[in-house]
Task: structure prediction
Amino acid sequence: MSKILVTGSLHYDIVIHAHHRPEKGETVIGSGCSYKFGGKGGNQAVAAAKAGARVGFVGAVGADTQGEFLRAVLDENGIDNRFVTVNESVASGMSVALMDAEGDYGAVVVSNANNHIDVAQFNDDQLWQQVEMLLLQNEVSEAVNLSAAKQAKQRGIRVCLNAAPARALCAEMQYAVDLLVVNGVEARDLSGIPVNNLSDACMAAELLSQHYPAVIVTAGEHGVAWCEAGDRSESMPAEKVELVSTHGAGDCFMGTLCTSILQRESLGSSVAKANRAAAAHVSRKPTAR
Result:
């Protein structure tokens, strides 16, 4: 059975709840705090596993209790973590997220061990056994992503990049990517088109598809647009739900999307399934694990 290989970040997340996010110099009294498994790479791997995919993971953690926790969650979700290295001299990655009463959040990420992923692992043929898709994000260095992507391309494996956070990509990386997925802010940064509605998302997707075989632009409460190179863009509105928290919605979308593609569904059908999964995610109260 084919599987998804995820290369990316693992973070021990501290999530703080408050009425609003503080302004500069302001102290806000919080209403709660929780500790979670996180990192875009880790979250997307878990989402793909929960959607039914076989998943492998390449990353790094510190030799600390946080690293043990992160590896344990991968294990609990049936994710192959043999290629998650334990760094004896650097702490595990972490983030602090502040969630406001409206369900929106801001976060600070400290990469730590995520800056020390061993790229030599990508030369190991065992790593790539039965892999049909490589899933990347931008919370690790482009050098790591490019090393993984080059090996995937040599093996005829599809490369999906969730370019979050947005950053300029070198020509080699652009060439390696088969499917680019960005949100409205990232689409604006990469295309120059402000995404304020679904029409804008379509225009950004069409422009970016001149450089990538396929592009998806998620536009939050407006919906999602996608475009395959040479075609006109398509779109669908967001599902109507009561928002509880947007935290992790994009990662849920990515895991579901890649699993659906791996199951041979069309891009449009996969986007629709991922859109529904993300809508369900934002309407649920986040769990502590």
The two ends are 28 Å apart (CA to CA).
